[in-house]
Amino acid sequence: MTDLQVQERVAGENGQNHRDLASPTPATADAPARPATRTSAPRTRSGLPVIRLIELAIIGVLAFLALDFVFHAIGALNVGFAGVIFTVGSFLASPFVGIFTTTPASQGNLLVWTDILAMGVYAAAALVLAIATAKIAGSLVRRPV
Asked: At residue 131, does pLDDT exceed 80?
């Protein structure tokens, strides 16, 4: 048999007798099976720098407020590093002053509950902002061209 002919097995009328037929079709080797490729929208990280900036900002805000709460609770003096923390912390907590009262702790130390409230509000706002940024960036990236 030549390279251009392919042998085919043909069943007889009773289904048991087989004979080989030569056909003039060219013989081709089966192509190796390739895995199916997924054609989905490309995933890019267009919103990631903005989300990282939001995370960095909220970490700084929460750190100042937490240190302000702790320094008031332990009775730190308003000088040096503690003075900077008190200034920034009181500025960040100022929108929430008057919602909770500041309670005295032992020996003249204070528990400034406004700092805790401000930490919760700022963390929730940062979470909402990060989710909104991720959704907006995701919808812009996945939009069909």
From this structure: yes
